[in-house]
Amino acid sequence: MAAPLPRDPIAEAQRNWEEHGWGDVAAPMAAITAIMRTQQILLARIESILKPFGLTFARYELLALLSFTRKGSLPMNKASALLQVHPTSVTNAVDRLERAGLVARFPHPTDGRTTLIGLTTEGRTLAKRSTAALNAEVFSAPGFDPGDVEHLIRILRDFRRNAGDFED
Predict the structure, then answer these.
(1) What is the mean pLDDT of each successive set of 10 residues along the chain, which is 168 residues long?
(2) Domain count along the chain
(3) Which pLDDT does position 112 carry in this prediction?
(4) Which of 37, 109, 155, 168 pairs with 161 at a CA distance of 20 to 30 A?
(5) Both 40 and 93 in a single domain?
(6) DSSP 4
(7) Domain, as residue range, for 41
(8) Is the pTM higher than 0.85?
(9) Are 62 and 94 in contact (CB under 8 A)?
(10) Where are the alpha helices (DSSP H) in the chain?
(11) Do 81 and 68 lie in a common domain?
């Protein structure tokens, strides 16, 4: 990890926005930029935990999603919808996971147009092990004050709902 900067570049950017006459949008710009930087920091932490398992976060999410299903399988298009990613991204993740022996593709028993993806025994084991590592090393100490977590969840949930991400 790089050494910390001597001052907050986002606060500096906010001051620059204000000095250039964009004061009415300076705080929202800083908030959005801070969220994006926070996402980069969190993703780097998560990826460093998943790397020894041979996983990226995208592939981990798919394994975790499959591990939560009753049968350990889902139609590819449903996985794409639940992960909120383009079908091509799911196909790429499945290709990599399949080559690693962690998932398998198979035809849907009643819909010949649908391909299911399912966890292999090795995939189920890796999903459990990698989730345990993330729980222990990231999610148990996310870097947010415990009192802020529920507030943060509400703020981000409201934003996502208002952006059309989901309906209540």
Answers:
(1) 91 98 98 97 97 97 96 93 95 97 94 93 97 98 95 96 93
(2) 2
(3) 85
(4) 37
(5) no
(6) P
(7) 10-53
(8) yes
(9) yes
(10) 9-19, 23-50, 57-68, 76-83, 87-99, 121-134, 146-162
(11) yes
